[in-house]
Amino acid sequence: MNPTRRSFLKGVLAAAGVGIGAPIAYLEIRNLHNGTALLPGESAHPSGEASPAAAPASGSALPSAQASAKPQPRSLVVIQLAGGNDGLATVLPYADPVLKDNRPTLTFTDEQLLKLDGNVALHPNMKALKGLWDQHKVAIVQGVGYPDPNRSHFASMDIWQSATPGKPSDTGWLGRYLDAAELPADNPFNAASVGGSIPQSLKGKNATVAALQDVRNFTFKTDPRFPQDHADVMGAFAQLYQHGPAGASYYGVVERAESTAASAANDLKDAATRYQSSVTYPQTPLGRSLADVAQLLAGGFGTRVFHVATGGFDTHSGEKNAHDRLMTDLSDSITAFYNDLNAHGLSQNVVMMTWSEFGRRVKENGSSGTDHGTAAPLFVVGDAVNGGLVGDQPSLSKLDGNGDLVFGIDFRAVYNTILSKWLGMDGQEVLGGKFELLPLLKG
After folding, report:
1. Which of 31, 344, 353 is nearest to 184 (CA)?
2. Could you say which DSSP state residue 420 is in?
3. For residues 422 and 409, what is the distance between their CA atoms, to the nearest angstrom?
4. Could you tell me if 65 and 189 are in contact, meaning their C-beta atoms sit under 8 angstroms apart?
5. 228 phi, psi to nearest 5 deg
6. In angstroms, rounded to a whole number, what is the distance separating the alpha carbons of residues 27 and 33?
7. Composition of the chain by helix, strand, coil, percent to 5
8. Are 347 and 85 in contact (CB under 8 A)?
9. If you write DSSP's letter for every residue of 312-357 in order, what string do you get?
10. φ and ψ at 11, to 5 degrees?
């Protein structure tokens, strides 16, 4: 007897306690078209209705990511430091006495600092990243910001992710890149947000983006009490979604969602089985997310852009101990990730970039913390990077009308350089304006 949806759901899923559809929930595969969710291989009518385009035959699976994706030589890994990282406690202008005068509890002795030159130094806990700096694999872009800065977390995050200050946008700068890059339409892993939901920066009109909570545990789960039934349950699940109600035009979307999720789960399981690493990552959300990114890169999924996020940077009170831990995590996680890629022969094809929605104010507050500021440094890391300082450290005494640092480099210049020199895309097309090219990358 063919299983019915009612008997299948009551007899299997209800007993399982965890849904068999979990990978669909955890793998948000979206082609965003004016807010309408489309699946790979679909186009949209002018009315906004989804319509299949070259859809697989009923019952057939989409090609696996590894089989369908063309090899992509370069990838970008974007690391978000959510909350507003204190740039003056990350890359410290130690030679300027104004720093210590304004931050009595948030500075270090000269002996503790990891000096980069006669003016600036890394936070003492960033010894691992300093090692990459010494190998000329780290560029530090100083004084990054934008005109008329906004000190609201949400507004400034939106500005950084859309790259359209003063102009609301439903797409992000990386989503627009993905739309224009003509990547394989049947590859669900053209871009991936690892460890969280899809950020604004990855949202485009047609971009295919995967949101993966945990690569190691990405699987269809059936009732753990009856592991011997897993194959039969999966077969029944596939059968249910191969034969939709007669005349239901939407059912092709449902079928392709199931097929894509099943194919992706199998591909990730195979990649996890093959992946071996001798590198020890920090057991933190950032460390685990970057370990997942390394696994996806080693699996050859053809992913061009990855996004990971780590939080805790909104340090209004008791900053020192919290920020010390954050700097250790950031430094050790980035370095472990680089070492892992290098061991797998992948480091020459990957560039990392950090960003945060704003920096902090020069003067510490009465709670031994710092409040929302403006300009701050960011890191660009990789074999292809021209190691060194880019731009000037903003003056600590010549501040703007609100008493904050004056930015020197527009963040869109960093994006333009990455797009044009690394991802092979016309930055002006994506950003909608002309911005300088920075000396961040070799060649």
Report:
1. 31
2. H
3. 19
4. yes
5. -70, -15
6. 18
7. 35, 15, 50
8. no
9. ----SSSHHHHHHHHHHHHHHHHHHHHHHHHHTT-GGGEEEEEE-S
10. -85, -20
Question: Quick one: pLDDT at residue 220?
Answer: 67
Report how far apart, in Å, the C-alpha atoms of 391 and of each of 80, 179, 232 are: 21, 31, 61
The region, left, alpha or beta by phi > 0 then psi within -120 to 50, assigned to residue 76 is beta
Whole-number Cα distances in Å, 383 to 139, 205, 317, 327, 348: 11, 32, 37, 22, 5
User: For the range 427-432, what are the long-range contacts, defined as Cβ-Cβ under 8 Å and sequence gap of 24 or more?
Assistant: 429/180, 430/163, 430/173, 430/176, 430/177, 430/180, 431/163, 431/173, 432/164
Specify the amino acid at residue 263.
S
3-state secondary structure of 98: helix
- Model confidence over 415-427: pLDDT tens digits? 999 999 999 999 9
CA–CA gap between residue 165 and residue 148 (Å, rounded)? 9
Strands 75-81 and 42-44: unpaired
Beta strands in 10-126 (DSSP E): 30-33, 36-38, 42-44, 50-52, 75-81, 91-92, 114-115, 121-122
User: Which residues, 6 or more positions from 292, have their beta carbon under 8 angstroms from its beta carbon?
Assistant: 194, 195, 212, 214, 215, 216
Are 55 and 85 spatial neighbours (Cβ–Cβ below 8 Å)? no
Look up residue 329 and give its amino acid.
Answer: D
Poorest-confidence range of 3-17, 152-166, 415-429? 3-17
Q: Which residue blocks in 29-121 are alpha helix, DSSP H?
A: 65-68, 97-102
Buried b (16+ CB within 10 A) or exposed e, 345-371: ebbebbbbbbbbbbbbbbbbeeebbbb
- 375 near 359, Cβ under 8 Å? yes
- Model confidence at 274, pLDDT cuts 50, 70, 90, reads confident
Mean pLDDT score across all residues of the chain: 83
Nearest CA-CA partner of 139 in 406, 371, 345, 389? 389
Question: b vs e for 376-388, b when ≥16 Cβ sit within 10 Å of the residue's Cβ?
Answer: bbbbbbbbbbbbe
